[in-house]
# Entry
Amino acid sequence: MLASVTQFLDAGDMRQFFELRDARQLDRTKARSTLAFDLTFAIVTLLAVVGLWLDIWSHVTYGADQSIFSQYHLLFYSATVMAGTFLAYTGISNLSAGYRWSDALPVGYSLSLAGIIFFGIVGCIDLTSHAIWGFETGAEALTSPTHLGLFAGIFVFASGPIRATVARQRRGESLTLTRLAPVVLSVTCTLSAITFPFFNILPLVGKPWALQIQRSDQGATLGVIGVIIQTAITMGILLWIVRRVSLPPGTITLIFVLYSLLTVLVTRIPIFVPIWLIAGILSDVAMVVLKPSSGDVWRFRLFGAVVPALMWSVYYSFFMITGIGGGIWFTGYIWTGSIVEAAITGYLLAFLMTSATVQQSDVALVGQER
Amino acid sequence: MQIFKMCCGTFLALAAPAIVWAQPMSTPIVDPPRQEMQTVEPNLLVGPYLLNVTGKTFAGDVFLDVAVTDNGAPVADGTTVTFSAAPTTTGDSSPDGGSPVDLAAKTSAGHAKFVPTMTAPGDWMITLGVTGAAGAVTATPLKLGIDPHRPPDSPTYALSSLALPIVTVIVLLAFLRLRHVELEQWPTGREQRAPRQPRQQAQTAVG
# Structure
């Protein structure tokens, strides 16, 4: 029974994500999703994420909700229910065709179903807590435990097409251009899910601390922290994918631009889109040159440091050249330092994602010291 | 003369209630439902008092409940709490056409309640003060954002939000079925969807 549950939840697949263990057993028994399946699921997921961005916009514009049945809740709840219905339909079809329940969903999607169920349970708790204790306002809406649960649910179910792509790479199938659309949509949605709790402090989304018009007492400190958090979020997802999937050139640009367009749903200020576009193109060039997916640890770690350095260099250069928002008020020490700190953050993430190899001789030395 | 007296009597009889009604009377403040209340200014330390302000901050619909404690205990009933608000004049959120407000209220069970007339959305500077047994103190002015009232829900928007994902999935699945596009590929040797044997039958076979 336990083996069936772990197989259903793609536990081996999860190990594949985090520890790079062999998960070929799953490939022998479970179905593989086709492009049509991945794309259908990714589109419905995108609708859910768009709905959540619009709900955040309504919070930013009108303050807290005044009813749990706000019209801005409908899109993301409806899309999530449809994503769950799609997976349930697939699972039930396979069950009725005689397959075991642990094999009922294609590789990568059992966790998506678990994420949707989790989202539903947390959603009910969230709506009940609103009815009893009232609505969160301001930062409360971003840090409320039930809302964090909803974001976590979206992260788990939106990443289904990524898991399916990883499984395909494991079988030696490379990511073709036709297969790219669901991956880009899925990565964008997953990135959005992590962004939600922090969006109002991120310099490349909602709070350009470095601009003259945003100048404040603690602005430099908050701005540098914002740079580090945004780097951790963006590179966390990007390195996670690049480590496992060889992305075709142009993928990072597509991900960055689509992501920035989604954030515009809240901010209604498209000023960051060109920055993401340029940063995406340069990151793609870095990917082509450094080949972080080749398996060489040093290439992967260098990519982890180079992309944030490029991203924040573009950010500061853009505002210095255009003078938008009064230009940059951070002193040279601060803005150059924040680029270095971003590069260090990216490198450390890459460092943590690459398993350390301990030499046998080192272990023997430790033994002798004892 | 009698007619004149009767007219005066009738006038006084009619005018007396009107004079009473015309007196300024404080309308009782009714608390909004709990689920409409939000945190406005939490844990505001003003001299010896700790203020917790909750309420509603929508333009034309402002309600503030100021809970005042002194050393962890609610202040005595009748403690005076003052509230003043003025629209900010700088920045991009200055209320348009807002006029300053000055109110005072007495506490009851440690709570003072205000319904200020703040009809313009934007940033207001508010100042709270307490005059009680522990002294009279005034807080540093704080910025309070007054949100515009949400427009009423649009049935078209609600229906399209609800229907969009449903229609998308149905249309996509119908299209894929019409074009005979498979959603899944099974590993070699597992394409044949053999129906499961009933458990009893399987046990018999094993036995």
User: Anything to note?
Assistant: Residues 158 and 164 of chain B are 10 Å apart (CA to CA). Helices of chain B lie at 2-22, 155-178, 199-206. The first strand of chain B starts at residue 38 and ends at 46.
